[in-house]
């Protein structure tokens, strides 16, 4: 499917012109089925669009084209070819980007705070934290995949029955059959008691800065210091490996999670909004 624009009006055909430099045609076409779009002008890429399905099933759009004459038709093409609810994530300080997405029909769905968390136990105050009596904290890579996958399933069900999983979107990999499963135990610190897994803390190791992806404890075992004990192990392990800090994103309305991070000295460095288009 190709889309071209003539003086700001969307047309679906082979080729036409868009008002701009030399009135050259901007052609928008999908280059990879269901995933990528390019905006071309004089055979040069002047904009890119991508649709990424997250493991929680939601579809997120990303666009790299910061001229309205390219951005709006590019988004319009993506929306027309993706007949479902879609989302995007925008930095709250990027007023222009937010306005462009709103002009495309997106509305605010949820907001989150962005934190930087130091790993040094002298800064977090976690150097003296010990696991509650009877609780064993399994270091990164020590958990077994099967019970870890089961814990993930139970945690998702508990969150879904309460605030809703959309308030804690977590990036877990999916199996080939589409079901969500824990693939890499090396990314998890786990709390266990008598062989039963009760809580998990996940980190995503990336080149620029590691990301604290999720801290979760079974509903019946919360408020007993398990989350802090897992964080003490996870952040301490990263510190010993030479990682100075991690990032974390928390739903603005998730008061316990925000309090947990602020309680270990996390610094809020920004905020972002998820926008939705129906």
From TrEMBL:
Alphabetical UniProt keywords: Transferase
A molecular function (GO) term: acyltransferase activity, transferring groups other than amino-acyl groups
Cytoplasm found in the keyword field: no
One Pfam family, short name: Acetyltransf_1
Name of the molecule in the record: Acetyltransferase (GNAT) family protein
Leader sequence residues: none
Start and end residues of each N-acetyltransferase domain: 135-278
Entries under Gene3D superfamilies matching the protein: 3.40.630.30
Organism of derivation: Parafrankia irregularis
InterPro entries the record matches: Acyl_CoA_acyltransferase, GNAT_dom
